[in-house]
Specification:
Elements lengths: L7 H8 L11 E5 L3 E6 L2 E6 L9 E3 L1 H5 L4
Antiparallel strand pairs: 1-2, 2-3, 3-4
């Protein structure tokens, strides 16, 4: 029987088999009112914050990120 009180992370842990890894979403490197910037698989991606006009993630060059152009 599955309890109705389980949240997503508890369900994920319960449902995975032994030795199975959980994939990483990336490393959060910056958060502000407009975006969440994550480093993932050698890319730097800017995801829009809720309520902003932008809908999709944008890739940021490593040079622009280092210069603060995000």
């Amino acid at each position: 029987e599955i309890s109705l009180g389980l949240v997503g992370s508890e369900m994920c842990i319960r449902d995975r088999s032994s030795g199975e890894g959980i994939p990483t979403l990336g490393e959060v490197v910056h958060i502000d009112e407009k975006q969440v910037v994550m480093k993932r698989e050698n890319k730097i991606l800017s995801y829009p914050a809720p309520g902003t006009d932008r809908q999709n993630a944008l890739e940021i060059s490593a040079e622009d990120f280092k210069r603060g152009k995000i």
